Amino acid sequence: MSNKLNIDWNDFLTNYWQKKPVILRDAFSHFVDPITPDELAGLAMEEEIDSRIVTNKDGKWDAKFGPFIDFSNLGEDHWSLLVQAVDHWHEQAATLVEPFKCIPQWQFEDLMISYATQGAGVGPHIDNYDVFIIQGMGCRRWQVGDRNPNYKQFSAHKALLHVESYQPIIDEEITAGDILYIPIGFPHNGVSIGESLSYSVGFRTQTSQELLSGFADYVIDNLPNGIFYQDPDLKLPKDPYRVQPYELEKLQNQMIDLIKNPQLFNDWFGKHITIPMHELNILPVEPTYDLDEFEALLKSGAKLHRVPSIRIVKIENAGYIHGKKIPLPIEVIDLLCQSETLSYDQLHHEETLKVMLHFVNCGFWYFQDQE
Ligand code: SIN
Ligand code: CO
Protein backbone atom coordinates (compact mmCIF):
# COMPACT_ATOMS: atom_id res chain seq x y z
CA MET A 1 0.00 0.00 0.00
CA SER A 2 1.44 3.34 -0.98
CA ASN A 3 -0.21 6.76 -1.10
CA LYS A 4 0.02 8.64 -4.38
CA LEU A 5 0.59 12.39 -4.32
CA ASN A 6 -1.04 14.64 -6.91
CA ILE A 7 0.85 17.93 -6.99
CA ASP A 8 1.76 20.05 -9.97
CA TRP A 9 5.28 20.72 -8.67
CA ASN A 10 6.11 23.43 -11.21
CA ASP A 11 2.98 25.36 -10.31
CA PHE A 12 3.58 24.80 -6.60
CA LEU A 13 7.20 26.01 -6.73
CA THR A 14 6.32 29.05 -8.84
CA ASN A 15 3.39 30.20 -6.74
CA TYR A 16 3.82 28.93 -3.18
CA TRP A 17 7.25 27.52 -2.22
CA GLN A 18 8.65 29.89 0.42
CA LYS A 19 6.14 32.52 -0.70
CA LYS A 20 2.78 31.78 0.82
CA PRO A 21 0.83 29.05 2.60
CA VAL A 22 -1.72 26.99 0.73
CA ILE A 23 -4.11 24.11 1.26
CA LEU A 24 -3.83 21.42 -1.40
CA ARG A 25 -7.16 19.63 -1.17
CA ASP A 26 -7.16 15.91 -1.83
CA ALA A 27 -3.44 15.93 -2.67
CA PHE A 28 -3.48 12.27 -1.68
CA SER A 29 -6.72 10.75 -2.96
CA HIS A 30 -7.99 7.90 -0.78
CA PHE A 31 -5.28 8.53 1.83
CA VAL A 32 -4.46 5.53 4.02
CA ASP A 33 -2.68 6.16 7.34
CA PRO A 34 0.65 4.32 7.21
CA ILE A 35 0.87 4.03 11.00
CA THR A 36 -1.60 3.60 13.87
CA PRO A 37 -1.72 5.74 17.03
CA ASP A 38 -0.64 2.65 19.01
CA GLU A 39 2.43 2.16 16.84
CA LEU A 40 3.27 5.85 17.25
CA ALA A 41 2.96 5.49 21.02
CA GLY A 42 5.30 2.45 20.80
CA LEU A 43 7.94 4.57 19.03
CA ALA A 44 7.58 7.25 21.72
CA MET A 45 8.67 4.63 24.28
CA GLU A 46 12.08 4.28 22.61
CA GLU A 47 15.10 6.02 24.10
CA GLU A 48 16.63 7.12 20.79
CA ILE A 49 13.43 8.59 19.30
CA ASP A 50 12.53 12.23 20.07
CA SER A 51 8.97 12.60 21.24
CA ARG A 52 6.87 14.95 23.31
CA ILE A 53 3.40 15.19 24.73
CA VAL A 54 1.79 18.62 24.74
CA THR A 55 -1.31 19.28 26.81
CA ASN A 56 -3.57 22.30 26.97
CA LYS A 57 -6.14 21.42 29.61
CA ASP A 58 -8.23 24.38 30.79
CA GLY A 59 -6.00 26.79 28.87
CA LYS A 60 -2.84 25.69 30.73
CA TRP A 61 0.01 24.62 28.45
CA ASP A 62 2.40 21.84 29.39
CA ALA A 63 5.01 19.80 27.49
CA LYS A 64 6.81 16.64 28.49
CA PHE A 65 9.60 14.88 26.61
CA GLY A 66 9.85 11.13 25.96
CA PRO A 67 10.66 8.34 26.18
CA PHE A 68 7.25 7.63 27.70
CA ILE A 69 6.24 4.50 29.55
CA ASP A 70 2.57 5.17 30.15
CA PHE A 71 -0.17 7.09 28.34
CA SER A 72 -3.02 6.18 30.63
CA ASN A 73 -3.24 9.39 32.70
CA LEU A 74 -3.73 11.77 29.84
CA GLY A 75 -7.50 11.70 29.68
CA GLU A 76 -9.77 11.88 26.66
CA ASP A 77 -8.94 15.25 25.16
CA HIS A 78 -6.59 18.26 24.91
CA TRP A 79 -3.36 16.32 24.57
CA SER A 80 -1.23 15.37 21.61
CA LEU A 81 1.78 13.14 21.08
CA LEU A 82 4.42 14.31 18.61
CA VAL A 83 7.17 12.00 17.36
CA GLN A 84 10.11 13.27 15.31
CA ALA A 85 11.92 11.52 12.44
CA VAL A 86 9.46 8.63 12.19
CA ASP A 87 10.85 8.02 8.67
CA HIS A 88 14.03 6.75 10.36
CA TRP A 89 12.24 4.03 12.27
CA HIS A 90 8.98 3.01 10.56
CA GLU A 91 9.25 1.65 7.04
CA GLN A 92 5.62 2.17 6.05
CA ALA A 93 5.50 5.73 7.42
CA ALA A 94 8.73 6.45 5.52
CA THR A 95 6.90 5.82 2.22
CA LEU A 96 5.11 9.16 2.82
CA VAL A 97 8.31 11.12 2.18
CA GLU A 98 8.97 9.37 -1.16
CA PRO A 99 6.82 11.77 -3.24
CA PHE A 100 8.77 14.72 -1.77
CA LYS A 101 12.13 13.38 -2.95
CA CYS A 102 11.98 15.66 -5.98
CA ILE A 103 12.74 18.61 -3.67
CA PRO A 104 16.47 19.19 -2.96
CA GLN A 105 17.30 16.41 -0.53
CA TRP A 106 19.93 18.38 1.34
CA GLN A 107 17.07 20.50 2.67
CA PHE A 108 14.92 17.60 3.88
CA GLU A 109 14.73 17.28 7.64
CA ASP A 110 12.27 14.60 8.70
CA LEU A 111 8.76 13.24 8.94
CA MET A 112 7.17 14.28 12.23
CA ILE A 113 3.89 12.61 13.14
CA SER A 114 1.40 13.90 15.64
CA TYR A 115 -1.56 12.16 17.16
CA ALA A 116 -4.03 14.60 18.69
CA THR A 117 -7.20 14.27 20.72
CA GLN A 118 -10.21 16.61 20.68
CA GLY A 119 -9.16 20.24 21.17
CA ALA A 120 -5.42 19.45 21.17
CA GLY A 121 -2.59 21.22 19.36
CA VAL A 122 0.74 22.79 20.17
CA GLY A 123 -0.64 26.32 20.17
CA PRO A 124 -0.03 29.28 17.83
CA HIS A 125 3.65 29.40 16.83
CA ILE A 126 6.17 30.14 14.09
CA ASP A 127 8.50 27.46 12.72
CA ASN A 128 12.03 27.79 11.36
CA TYR A 129 11.33 25.44 8.49
CA ASP A 130 9.01 24.83 5.56
CA VAL A 131 6.48 22.14 6.17
CA PHE A 132 3.92 20.06 4.30
CA ILE A 133 1.34 18.97 6.86
CA ILE A 134 -0.52 15.97 5.50
CA GLN A 135 -3.79 15.32 7.25
CA GLY A 136 -4.39 11.67 8.01
CA MET A 137 -7.19 10.22 10.08
CA GLY A 138 -9.66 12.80 11.43
CA CYS A 139 -9.78 16.52 10.95
CA ARG A 140 -7.92 19.65 12.11
CA ARG A 141 -8.75 23.31 11.95
CA TRP A 142 -5.78 25.40 10.87
CA GLN A 143 -5.41 29.13 11.22
CA VAL A 144 -2.40 30.54 9.39
CA GLY A 145 -1.38 34.20 9.54
CA ASP A 146 0.75 36.30 7.22
CA ARG A 147 4.52 36.59 7.59
CA ASN A 148 5.51 39.60 9.68
CA PRO A 149 8.86 40.16 11.43
CA ASN A 150 7.15 42.18 14.17
CA TYR A 151 5.09 39.41 15.76
CA LYS A 152 5.83 39.09 19.45
CA GLN A 153 6.67 35.61 20.67
CA PHE A 154 6.51 34.44 24.25
CA SER A 155 6.97 31.25 26.26
CA ALA A 156 3.58 29.74 27.09
CA HIS A 157 5.66 27.06 28.83
CA LYS A 158 9.46 26.72 28.97
CA ALA A 159 9.33 24.32 26.00
CA LEU A 160 6.59 26.07 24.01
CA LEU A 161 7.28 29.31 22.19
CA HIS A 162 3.98 30.86 21.17
CA VAL A 163 3.12 33.87 19.07
CA GLU A 164 0.71 36.67 19.92
CA SER A 165 -2.66 36.65 18.17
CA TYR A 166 -2.63 37.26 14.43
CA GLN A 167 -5.20 37.79 11.69
CA PRO A 168 -5.64 34.47 9.82
CA ILE A 169 -5.21 34.46 6.05
CA ILE A 170 -6.21 30.78 6.08
CA ASP A 171 -8.85 29.49 8.48
CA GLU A 172 -10.03 26.07 7.35
CA GLU A 173 -10.55 22.49 8.34
CA ILE A 174 -8.59 19.82 6.54
CA THR A 175 -9.39 16.13 6.28
CA ALA A 176 -7.64 12.94 5.21
CA GLY A 177 -5.44 13.43 2.14
CA ASP A 178 -5.40 17.24 2.26
CA ILE A 179 -2.06 19.01 2.63
CA LEU A 180 -1.41 22.33 4.29
CA TYR A 181 1.88 23.83 3.12
CA ILE A 182 3.35 26.46 5.46
CA PRO A 183 6.53 28.32 4.52
CA ILE A 184 9.07 29.28 7.16
CA GLY A 185 7.99 32.23 9.28
CA PHE A 186 4.19 32.11 8.88
CA PRO A 187 2.39 31.82 12.24
CA HIS A 188 -0.01 28.90 12.49
CA ASN A 189 -2.18 26.98 14.88
CA GLY A 190 -3.78 23.59 14.35
CA VAL A 191 -6.54 22.33 16.61
CA SER A 192 -7.75 18.77 16.40
CA ILE A 193 -11.43 18.12 15.88
CA GLY A 194 -11.89 14.73 17.48
CA GLU A 195 -8.99 12.29 17.22
CA SER A 196 -6.57 12.94 14.39
CA LEU A 197 -3.19 12.08 12.93
CA SER A 198 -1.06 14.48 10.95
CA TYR A 199 2.22 14.03 9.14
CA SER A 200 4.68 16.90 8.82
CA VAL A 201 7.27 16.63 6.05
CA GLY A 202 9.81 19.29 7.01
CA PHE A 203 12.49 21.09 4.99
CA ARG A 204 15.10 23.13 6.79
CA THR A 205 17.97 25.29 5.62
CA GLN A 206 20.74 26.76 7.70
CA THR A 207 21.26 30.27 8.91
CA SER A 208 24.34 32.25 7.92
CA GLN A 209 25.37 32.03 11.56
CA GLU A 210 25.24 28.21 11.51
CA LEU A 211 27.03 28.06 8.17
CA LEU A 212 29.83 30.38 9.28
CA SER A 213 30.32 28.61 12.55
CA GLY A 214 30.37 25.15 10.91
CA PHE A 215 32.77 26.32 8.20
CA ALA A 216 35.06 28.00 10.74
CA ASP A 217 35.36 24.77 12.75
CA TYR A 218 36.17 22.85 9.58
CA VAL A 219 38.80 25.37 8.48
CA ILE A 220 40.47 25.30 11.89
CA ASP A 221 40.62 21.48 11.82
CA ASN A 222 41.69 21.14 8.19
CA LEU A 223 44.03 24.08 7.57
CA PRO A 224 46.54 23.80 10.40
CA ASN A 225 48.79 26.58 9.08
CA GLY A 226 47.58 30.10 9.85
CA ILE A 227 46.90 32.35 6.88
CA PHE A 228 48.12 35.79 7.89
CA TYR A 229 47.05 39.21 6.72
CA GLN A 230 49.92 40.82 4.81
CA ASP A 231 50.38 44.18 3.10
CA PRO A 232 53.84 44.43 1.51
CA ASP A 233 52.80 47.62 -0.35
CA LEU A 234 52.07 49.49 2.88
CA LYS A 235 52.58 53.28 2.79
CA LEU A 236 52.71 55.37 5.94
CA PRO A 237 49.11 56.25 6.81
CA LYS A 238 47.99 59.75 7.87
CA ASP A 239 46.33 58.29 10.94
CA PRO A 240 47.81 55.01 12.14
CA TYR A 241 44.91 54.54 14.57
CA ARG A 242 42.42 54.32 11.71
CA VAL A 243 41.84 50.98 9.95
CA GLN A 244 41.65 52.07 6.33
CA PRO A 245 38.85 51.04 3.95
CA TYR A 246 41.29 49.21 1.66
CA GLU A 247 42.56 47.27 4.69
CA LEU A 248 39.03 46.27 5.67
CA GLU A 249 38.45 45.12 2.12
CA LYS A 250 41.64 43.05 2.15
CA LEU A 251 40.51 41.44 5.42
CA GLN A 252 37.10 40.63 3.96
CA ASN A 253 38.75 39.17 0.86
CA GLN A 254 41.08 37.12 3.00
CA MET A 255 38.03 35.46 4.53
CA ILE A 256 36.03 35.29 1.31
CA ASP A 257 38.97 33.60 -0.46
CA LEU A 258 38.62 30.70 1.97
CA ILE A 259 34.88 30.41 1.37
CA LYS A 260 35.47 30.64 -2.37
CA ASN A 261 38.04 27.84 -2.34
CA PRO A 262 35.83 25.24 -4.02
CA GLN A 263 37.60 22.18 -2.73
CA LEU A 264 37.52 23.39 0.86
CA PHE A 265 33.98 24.72 0.73
CA ASN A 266 32.45 21.81 -1.16
CA ASP A 267 34.10 19.19 1.01
CA TRP A 268 33.02 20.99 4.14
CA PHE A 269 29.46 21.43 2.92
CA GLY A 270 29.09 17.83 1.74
CA LYS A 271 30.25 16.51 5.10
CA HIS A 272 28.42 19.12 7.14
CA ILE A 273 25.04 18.79 5.43
CA THR A 274 25.01 15.00 5.65
CA ILE A 275 25.39 15.01 9.43
CA PRO A 276 22.04 13.70 10.69
CA MET A 277 19.56 16.11 12.27
CA HIS A 278 17.97 13.26 14.24
CA GLU A 279 19.22 9.91 15.46
CA LEU A 280 19.31 7.21 12.78
CA ASN A 281 18.82 3.47 12.95
CA ILE A 282 22.51 2.70 12.33
CA LEU A 283 23.96 -0.55 13.67
CA PRO A 284 27.70 -0.97 13.04
CA VAL A 285 28.52 -4.59 12.13
CA GLU A 286 30.10 -6.56 14.96
CA PRO A 287 32.30 -8.52 14.26
CA THR A 288 33.03 -6.72 10.99
CA TYR A 289 32.81 -8.49 7.63
CA ASP A 290 36.03 -9.10 5.75
CA LEU A 291 36.16 -8.60 2.00
CA ASP A 292 35.77 -12.30 1.12
CA GLU A 293 32.76 -12.77 3.39
CA PHE A 294 31.18 -9.57 2.09
CA GLU A 295 31.67 -10.51 -1.55
CA ALA A 296 30.37 -14.05 -0.95
CA LEU A 297 27.21 -12.70 0.68
CA LEU A 298 26.53 -10.38 -2.23
CA LYS A 299 27.30 -13.13 -4.76
CA SER A 300 24.83 -15.43 -3.02
CA GLY A 301 22.12 -12.86 -3.85
CA ALA A 302 21.94 -10.88 -0.57
CA LYS A 303 20.90 -7.28 -1.20
CA LEU A 304 22.22 -4.19 0.53
CA HIS A 305 19.72 -1.66 1.89
CA ARG A 306 20.58 1.93 2.64
CA VAL A 307 19.67 3.03 6.18
CA PRO A 308 16.33 4.87 5.85
CA SER A 309 16.79 8.63 5.57
CA ILE A 310 20.57 8.54 6.03
CA ARG A 311 21.73 11.76 4.39
CA ILE A 312 23.52 11.35 1.06
CA VAL A 313 24.34 14.13 -1.43
CA LYS A 314 26.42 14.81 -4.53
CA ILE A 315 28.50 17.92 -5.06
CA GLU A 316 30.21 18.23 -8.43
CA ASN A 317 31.93 14.87 -8.92
CA ALA A 318 31.97 13.85 -5.28
CA GLY A 319 29.53 12.11 -2.97
CA TYR A 320 29.00 12.42 0.77
CA ILE A 321 27.12 10.28 3.25
CA HIS A 322 26.61 10.71 6.99
CA GLY A 323 29.42 13.26 7.36
CA LYS A 324 31.92 11.33 5.21
CA LYS A 325 33.22 11.62 1.66
CA ILE A 326 32.56 8.60 -0.58
CA PRO A 327 35.82 7.85 -2.41
CA LEU A 328 34.23 6.45 -5.58
CA PRO A 329 33.64 7.69 -9.14
CA ILE A 330 30.54 9.78 -9.75
CA GLU A 331 28.83 7.02 -11.79
CA VAL A 332 28.85 4.79 -8.70
CA ILE A 333 27.78 7.66 -6.45
CA ASP A 334 24.83 8.31 -8.79
CA LEU A 335 23.82 4.72 -8.25
CA LEU A 336 24.26 4.90 -4.47
CA CYS A 337 21.96 7.94 -4.39
CA GLN A 338 19.30 6.60 -6.75
CA SER A 339 18.93 3.02 -5.54
CA GLU A 340 18.07 2.35 -1.95
CA THR A 341 18.69 -1.36 -2.58
CA LEU A 342 21.83 -2.70 -4.26
CA SER A 343 22.95 -6.07 -5.53
CA TYR A 344 26.25 -7.68 -6.53
CA ASP A 345 25.98 -6.92 -10.24
CA GLN A 346 25.90 -3.18 -9.41
CA LEU A 347 28.86 -3.28 -7.03
CA HIS A 348 31.23 -5.96 -8.34
CA HIS A 349 34.11 -3.62 -9.22
CA GLU A 350 36.94 -4.26 -6.74
CA GLU A 351 37.34 -0.65 -5.56
CA THR A 352 33.56 -0.28 -5.13
CA LEU A 353 33.39 -3.46 -3.08
CA LYS A 354 36.17 -2.28 -0.76
CA VAL A 355 34.55 1.09 -0.13
CA MET A 356 31.11 -0.46 0.34
CA LEU A 357 32.58 -3.01 2.75
CA HIS A 358 33.76 -0.12 4.91
CA PHE A 359 30.37 1.63 4.80
CA VAL A 360 28.51 -1.62 5.49
CA ASN A 361 30.74 -2.28 8.50
CA CYS A 362 29.96 1.28 9.67
CA GLY A 363 26.26 0.37 9.36
CA PHE A 364 25.28 2.82 6.57
CA TRP A 365 24.01 -0.04 4.39
CA TYR A 366 22.91 -3.41 5.74
CA PHE A 367 21.81 -6.84 4.61
CA GLN A 368 18.09 -7.23 5.27
CA ASP A 369 18.33 -10.40 7.32
CA GLN A 370 21.19 -9.03 9.50
CA GLU A 371 20.02 -8.56 13.09
C1 SIN B 1 1.15 19.24 15.03
O1 SIN B 1 1.22 18.44 14.10
O2 SIN B 1 0.43 19.05 16.00
C2 SIN B 1 2.00 20.49 15.01
C3 SIN B 1 2.55 20.77 13.70
C4 SIN B 1 2.96 22.21 13.62
O3 SIN B 1 2.19 23.11 13.81
O4 SIN B 1 4.13 22.48 13.29
CO1 CO C 1 4.32 24.35 13.33
Provide a brief overview of the structure:
The chain is an alpha+beta fold and 371 residues long. The protein is 26% helix and 26% strand. The protein has 10 helices and 19 strands.
Q: What does this entry look like structurally?
A:
The structure is a single chain. It contains 10 helices and 19 strands. The chain folds into 3 domains: 9-203, Jelly Rolls (Sandwich), CATH 2.60.120; 209-260, no CATH class; 291-370, 3-Layer(aba) Sandwich (Malonyl-Coenzyme A Acyl Carrier Protein, domain 2), CATH 3.40.366. The chain is α+β, with helices and mostly antiparallel strands and 371 residues long. Helices cover 26% and strands 26% of the residues. β2 (51-57) and β3 (60-65) form a beta hairpin. It has helices at 9-15, 37-43, 91-94, 208-222, 245-259, 262-273, 291-299, 330-338, 344-347, 350-362; strands at 22-24, 51-57, 60-65, 79-83, 108-116, 130-135, 139-145, 153-157, 160-163, 168-175, 179-182, 188-193, 196-203, 304-306, 312-315, 318-321, 324-326, 341-342, 365-367. The strands form 5 sheets. An 8-stranded antiparallel sheet has the order 1-11-6-13-5-4-2-3, with helices on one face. A 3-stranded antiparallel sheet has the order 10-7-12, with no helix packed on it. The chain binds succinic acid and cobalt (II) ion. Succinic acid (SIN) binds next to β4, β5, β12 and β13. Residues 80, 82, 114, 116, 121-122, 127, 131, 188, 190, 198, 200 line the site of succinic acid (SIN).
